[in-house]
Write a structure and sequence with these properties.
Blueprint (H helix, E strand, L loop, with lengths): L17 H4 L7 H6 L4 E3 L6 E3 L14 H12 L38 H4 L37 H19 L3 H16 L6 H26 L1 E5 L5 E5 L6 E3 L6 E3 L22 E11 L16 E8 L2 E7 L13 H23 L8 E7 L7 E4 L20 E5 L8 E6 L1 H15 L16 E5 L6 E5 L2 H5 L5 E8 L6 E3 H7 L24 E8 L8
Helix pairs in contact: 5-6, 5-7, 6-7
Length: about 550
């Protein structure tokens, strides 16, 4: 009889566990029998056991009373659980009450002030200027005009619009202001309807009509400012605009050509404005800015990826500047999922606004809607690579990619409060641009190549065992999968059992894993009859363009 934790037999010296037996070399049975061994009797069953054992191998009883008493104390009196009240402001097990606002039903879509007015009929139509004072024929009482058969109570809006149009035309012909005529027509129509603006549709229609008349009068007034009258030999006057200067027009009365004289424009001298000095900036876009407490980080891949702020890195001669954009309220996504695209457009517009401000000011101070953290030239040497790190003992996070697979993270020497530290992580294309500028401006090189970050795209070439074609597979695939600037293409599959490679064309030809390859993981390998697995091979189809310094 032996215990479960015994390394070797006490009688013959046979080793039960090779792992433990390597430390203590087994002895031969002859030597074992010749040596003297101290044995004591079990206080419970009387069996002779080796001295120093905690329990008897025969009855499993404790050899010492103090050990038995301590074990009984631990089993009968477990550690008590202490409950404490969490303050109300620190509770996170419920969601706060949501107050409905007027903008909840808009889905982030807002009409401009002039959209309804521009969509009114005749919004972009302008009447030509009258050349003669010809009388206007009144067709309202013509016997050929069909009479309206609409009842009196149902044609209030139509009658009001017609009355307003007639009053506005008469006012324009007599030289009065169209806005006054439109207001009088609106008042008359409101009085006629009897509601005084109570009908919403009627109010909207009248407001559109007033806005249309106002814009038309403004266009006519602007056009009248640019018109002039030229005398003709026949005594008539020809109305022309400044755009016809130097051209020849015809008189409408005698049809003779009239030369429009040249118009000298007054030239205003522009004062030379003081231009801001140009700033040579290299931008690294779409960088994640992290503020973490190292003692509270969960060592799990991607655990710190969600705790980031979108930022851009501006590299100048004065140092490295982290421009973190303020995270506004997330817009509610519609049923078609347009929230992310709207947010991306807002970020692009905000980025353009910030860069326009930098170009105008010539500095990175006082930017709108963003937080600027600067690292001086002296502190740039304190930048440190934290991900990836091949040697686990030298890694700050035990070699775990907490910032996400395929991302390069750097410690930033930015002073934070309460033990927090600042980091930034970026994709491989952004890191290559950042590393090149750090080396060029500050002679700083971080050991990324020694830790597995590819400096250039390298691929392996395999032979397909189905059709003997060449299958290209890019190395370090995870870095290119996480970078949206690279475009990858599926080139083939590799069997996880035997390592045989089949191209995508060969798989389609033999219908391995189905027509679209969805069942490739459970498909049998034609070479070893084992399961293929999901080891996909990709080749590089498109690389991101190299950005230039702005």
């Amino acid at each position: 009889m032996i215990l479960s934790d015994t390394d070797e037999c006490p009688q013959c010296g046979h080793t039960f566990y090779q792992r433990r037996g390597t430390d203590a070399q087994p002895t031969s049975p002859q030597v074992r029998r010749g040596t003297t061994e101290v044995r004591v009797g079990c206080p419970h069953c009387g069996e002779m056991v080796r001295a120093g054992l905690v329990r008897c191998w025969n009855c499993n009883g404790f050899m010492k009373e103090e050990i038995a008493a301590r074990y009984a104390d631990l089993t009968t009196n477990p550690q008590k659980i202490i409950y404490s009240m969490i303050p109300l402001e620190e509770r996170t097990d419920y969601l706060p009450a949501r107050v409905a606002t007027a903008s909840d039903d808009s889905d982030g879509f807002t009409l401009a002030d002039d959209v309804l007015a521009d969509s009114a009929p005749g919004g972009g139509f302008a009447l030509p200027a009258a050349t003669t004072n010809a009388p206007v024929a009144d067709l309202s009482s013509s016997p050929d005009r069909p009479q309206s058969t609409t009842p009196r109570g149902k044609g209030v809006i139509a009658d009001a619009l017609e009355a307003e149009a007639s009053l506005a035309d008469k006012a324009a012909a007599s030289g009065d202001k169209s806005a006054t005529a439109a207001e009088k027509a609106a008042e008359g129509a409101s009085a006629k309807s009897g509601g005084g603006g109570t009908d919403d549709l009627f109010s909207i229609a009248m407001q559109e009509q007033r806005d249309d008349r106002r814009r038309r009068s403004e266009r006519l007034a602007e056009r009248a400012k640019r018109q002039m009258l030229l005398p003709c030999k026949c005594g008539a006057w020809v109305r022309v605009t400044d755009e016809m200067a130097g051209k020849v027009v015809r008189c409408r009365q005698c049809r003779q050509p009239v030369q429009v004289p040249e118009i000298r424009r007054r030239v205003t001298e522009k004062k030379e404005e003081s231009t801001a000095p140009k700033l040579d900036v290299t931008w690294v876009n779409d960088v994640w800015f992290h503020v973490l407490t190292p003692t509270s980080v969960v060592l799990k891949p991607g655990s710190a990826a969600a705790q980031h702020t979108e930022a851009d890195i501006a590299i100048t001669d004065t140092g490295v500047h982290i421009i973190a954009f303020e995270s506004g309220e997330k817009k509610k996504k519609s049923l078609l999922g347009f929230g992310s695209s709207d947010r991306k457009q807002d970020r692009t517009a905000h980025r353009k606004q910030v860069r326009d401000e930098i170009a105008a000011k010539g500095s990175l101070s006082g930017l709108t809607g963003c937080d600027v953290r600067s690292i001086s030239v002296d502190d740039v040497r304190s930048l440190k690579l934290v991900q990836p790190i091949v040697k686990v003992q030298e890694s700050m996070f035990a070699g775990v990619p907490i910032f996400g697979e395929g991302r390069i993270a750097v410690f930033l020497p930015i002073a934070r409060e309460q033990g927090q530290q600042a980091y930034c992580s970026c994709t491989i294309s952004g890191w290559r641009l950042l590393a090149a500028r750090l080396k060029e401006l500050f002679s700083l090189e971080l050991p990324t190549a020694e830790n597995g970050v590819p400096e250039a795209e390298k691929s392996d070439t395999y032979s397909c065992f189905v059709n003997q074609s060449k299958v290209e597979s890019i190395r370090n695939l995870v870095y290119y999968q996480q970078d949206p600037g690279f475009e990858l293409e599926l080139s083939g599959f590799r069997c996880t059992a035997c390592g045989a490679v089949v191209s995508e064309e060969g798989r389609k030809k033999n219908k391995l894993g189905g027509a679209n390859g969805s069942g490739i993981a459970k498909a049998k390998c034609p070479k070893c009859s084992g399961k293929m697995g999901e080891d996909k091979l990709f080749r590089l189809k498109k690389s991101p363009e190299k950005p230039a310094a702005e």
